[in-house]
């Protein structure tokens, strides 16, 4: 018994015709007929009833058909497994991350991945979350560490690493030093220090403000500079609570802005075996955070 005989048998059954089956498998019709006859002789029973205008299964053929399909399915699964492994040997994965993120050690994740799959080419780029999200949706990135506020970005699957309230971080010289909280309305009366539009933190602030616009006096591209400006007494810095260092954190209320940090990839799934392997490793790492 040969796999091609089972393939021809299944094709004839599904097409209902030797002619259409021959076109499907790109083999001459006499060749298909001969191979199925050989299979029938080996099994000692007819599998197909050829007496009518269309080809139908005999009782034995109906019993054999599920096993033939299962055998062909197993071969296809083995082929896909080999292709997956070959993809991991020759593959590439494109990764993005938000600027200056200290919550998740993405370099450590990439190092672990490289140790497991040393032949996969890895590229990493930093950008604001809006650029990363667009690049994921457009297929320019396979995987990214993003920040966002509100609902999950459309077209993406995410695994949330952190969901944090924003705070107004101030120096000891600031009039809010020592306060526990400040309502959003009062916050909007101050000139603020913030990351630029397109970042998860700024998106969370803008979402909380709704139609109102916060007055941004100083805008810096990375959290360390935002912190430094606030330490110099230049105003409240809008930060996630875990980012505050050397400053006093004042909770923002009414409402409380929240920012999320998450792994993200295209919702329909990454196309390369390398990207799927990296996502699997990342999801395992999430459970240990």
Describe this structure in words.
By secondary structure, the protein is of the alpha/beta class. It folds into three domains: 3-83, Arc Repressor Mutant, subunit A, CATH 1.10.10.10; 90-159 and 261-286, 3-Layer(aba) Sandwich (D-Maltodextrin-Binding Protein, domain 2); 160-260, D-Maltodextrin-Binding Protein, domain 2 (3-Layer(aba) Sandwich). It is 43% helix and 23% strand. The protein is built from ten helices and twelve strands. It has helices spanning 3-15, 18-25, 29-43, 59-90, 106-116, 129-137, 184-187, 200-209, 223-231, 273-286; strands at residues 48-49, 56-57, 92-97, 121-126, 143-148, 156-170, 181-183, 192-194, 216-219, 237-240, 248-253, 258-266. The strands form three sheets. Strands 3, 4, 5, 6, 7, 10, 11 and 12 form an eight-stranded mixed β-sheet that branches. A two-stranded antiparallel ribbon has the order 1-2. Strands 8-9 form a two-stranded parallel ribbon. The longest helix is centred in the N-terminal third of the chain and has 32 residues, at 59-90. The chain is elongated. The model has no long low-confidence stretch (mean pLDDT 89).
Give descriptors for this structure:
23% strand, two-stranded antiparallel sheet, alpha/beta, D-Maltodextrin-Binding Protein, domain 2, LysR_HTH_N, 43% helix, 10 helices, LysR_subst-bd, 3 domains, 289 residues, eight-stranded mixed sheet, Arc Repressor Mutant, subunit A
């Amino acid at each position: 018994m040969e796999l091609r005989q089972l393939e021809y048998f299944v094709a004839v059954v599904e097409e209902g015709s030797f002619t259409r089956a021959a076109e499907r498998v790109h083999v001459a019709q006499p060749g298909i007929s001969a191979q199925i006859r050989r299979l029938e002789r080996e099994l000692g029973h007819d599998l197909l009833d050829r007496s009518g205008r269309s080809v139908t299964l005999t009782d034995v053929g109906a019993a054999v058909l599920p096993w033939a399909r299962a055998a062909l399915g197993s071969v296809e699964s083995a082929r896909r497994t080999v292709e997956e492994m070959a993809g991991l040997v020759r593959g590439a994965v494109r990764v993005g991350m938000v600027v200056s993120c200290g919550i998740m050690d993405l370099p450590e994740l990439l190092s672990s991945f490289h140790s497991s799959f040393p032949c996969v080419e890895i590229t990493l780029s930093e950008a604001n979350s809006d650029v990363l999200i667009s690049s994921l949706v457009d297929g320019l990135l396979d995987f990214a560490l993003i920040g966002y506020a509100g609902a999950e970005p459309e077209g993406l699957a995410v695994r949330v690493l952190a969901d944090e309230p924003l705070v107004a971080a101030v120096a000891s010289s600031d009039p809010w030093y020592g306060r526990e909280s400040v309502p959003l309305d009062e916050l909007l009366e101050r000139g603020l220090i913030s990351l630029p539009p397109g970042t998860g933190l700024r998106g969370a602030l803008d979402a909380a403000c709704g139609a109102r616009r916060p007055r941004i006096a100083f805008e810096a591209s990375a959290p360390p500079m935002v912190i430094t400006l606030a330490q110099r007494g230049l105003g409240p810095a809008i930060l996630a609570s875990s980012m505050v260092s050397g400053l006093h954190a004042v909770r923002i209320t009414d409402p409380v802005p929240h920012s999320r940090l998450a792994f993200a990839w295209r919702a329909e799934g990454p196309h390369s075996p390398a990207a799927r392997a990296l996502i699997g490793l990342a999801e395992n790492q999430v459970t240990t955070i």
